Amino acid sequence: MTRSYEEVLEKVRAGFLDPILRRSHRDSLESSFRSALDRLEEMQYGTPIWWSEGEEADYESASKRDMPESTSEMGEVIPRLVRFLKGIPIYGHPETVPNVIPQSTIPSIVGVALAAICNPNIMEESYGGKVCEAEVEVVSFISSLIGYDRNESSGFFTFGGTGTNLYGIKLGVQKVIDGCREKGIRRDVKVMASEVSHYSLLNAMDWLGLGTNNLIKIGADEDNSVSLEKLEKEARRLLSEGKQIACIVPTLGTTDAFGIDDIKEIVALRDDLVDDFSLDYSPHVHADSVIGWVLTVFNDYDFDENPLKLPGIENLIHLRDKIRYLYMADSAGIDFHKLGYTPYVSSLFVVKNRKELELIARDRSLMPYLYHTGRYHPGIYTLETSRSGSGVLSALSSLYFLGKDGYRVLLTHAIEMTQIFRRKIKKIGGVILNEQNIGPATLFRVYPPPYKDNSTSIYKEEIDGDIELLKRCNRYNEEIFRKIDEQIRSKGVGIVFSMTKSYKKTSYGEDITALKAYMTSPHIEEENIGHIVQQISRAMM
């Protein structure tokens, strides 16, 4: 039976909060959340995945579904939504270790919910209110952490780590090619980064119109940091040939191995190149520090007194010494949805000298219907016009809640658990590929019975040139991953970890496949590590 205009209007109004928040509609919102959480709880089986036996994604059916003709009851909508959450790893589970995707703090979840309720658009103050102030506060927190002068720095939230790299490279291009915003890019400019840098740099090169061929990838050393010798040699070759280098992108915390580039030496090299080649510009140094930024909480920690009684401080001092020069970068990327313990998406681009943002600012006359009130107008220079406040409020919530000490303890715990995991993996014949990298990530290979008792020497044979052995063991490690992944997804039993098909290339150009475990759950203990290793060991039988 078709309802009248008045009846439908009355019904849909009940699905919105009152313009003036009242208890009656708060109850409706709260009961909807309770219903959703109750249904999530029903989907748990004590395993590391939201699971329901026998259900797989039905993309073919989904691609043929039509939008409902009539309205639905709110109570009908919730179960329809919750069923789509099946198959997602429970990222807080202590046996979920696939990647740098930690559990979100409860305050950060509330931050996202508040942003959804109030719906700020932080393109400018008139639409974002004091959430704009919150964005400035986060920039202040981060500037202080990494060592920028807060009176000179600036920043804004963007659409992910890719966005932070896009902005960093864009500033570099603006410094090199005058007038390119109006006339376009009419000549090649180069961007330099490590061979183990994130692939989002290729996306940025593509979308900025620079061309992926102009991303110059430099070989990495054994510790998965960019080779300074190779970087200098290639940079000098490019400049000698009359090429221009728009940007150098050191990585501080690679996605796979947690490698950290020597940013102090990279900036010094940049400065030498400017002098030696009498450049009329300075290549922009953008730090892809979306993972490693959080280590800056140790910059001012008193390791002599060690008031938190942190274990393994030698490892922490080692990391502090690698991250402490982040302030030397011209700009940096910060992901809170990684080791900041917030929901997706919460990413910050921060620049040392706020005046450089004028390089990407638009003329206000091009936007005559905006920016008439208030003092905060980041929409003048951001790529996005619509910028949600959810990333800001979730980040600020976790920063308030955890403080420096909370992050220090979480990072220390992750590193301690990683060290235990590495010891146990070695006992079943595994080889740690990033042994030199202290951090929450472990890349490793396991070997079939003929090789596992002599795995270290077998791995050396692989990388020294035995291509057939390498390919055979690459396939074996992928089979182990597939076996464990199939078990957790089909039966809800086991662990969640991950694999990279090319952690690095051998000297003869072949991919090295690696299994990966990332210890980020605040709940993980040695017992869980034992179970994770046991599951891997069983898959090897």
Descriptive report:
The structure is a single chain. With 541 residues, this protein is an alpha/beta fold. Among the domains are: 5-83, no CATH class; 89-160 and 356-541, Aspartate Aminotransferase, domain 1 (Alpha-Beta Complex). Helix content is 43%, strand content 10%. The chain is built from 18 helices and eleven strands. The strands form two sheets. A seven-stranded mixed sheet has the order 1-7-6-5-4-2-3, with helices on both faces. It has a four-stranded antiparallel sheet with strand order 8-9-11-10, with helices on both faces. β2 (190-194), α10 and β3 form a beta-alpha-beta unit. The protein is globular, with a radius of gyration of 25 Å. The relative contact order is 0.13. The mean pLDDT is 95.
Question: End-to-end span in angstroms?
Answer: 62 Å
* Low-pLDDT residue spans: none
According to CATH, what is the topology of the domain at 89-160 and 356-541?
Answer: Aspartate Aminotransferase, domain 1
Overall shape: it is globular
Strand content: 5-15%
Q: Widest sheet: strand order?
A: 1-7-6-5-4-2-3
* CATH-defined superfamily of the domain at 89-160 and 356-541: Aspartate Aminotransferase, domain 1
Helical residue percent band: 40-55%
CATH architecture of the domain at 89-160 and 356-541: Alpha-Beta Complex
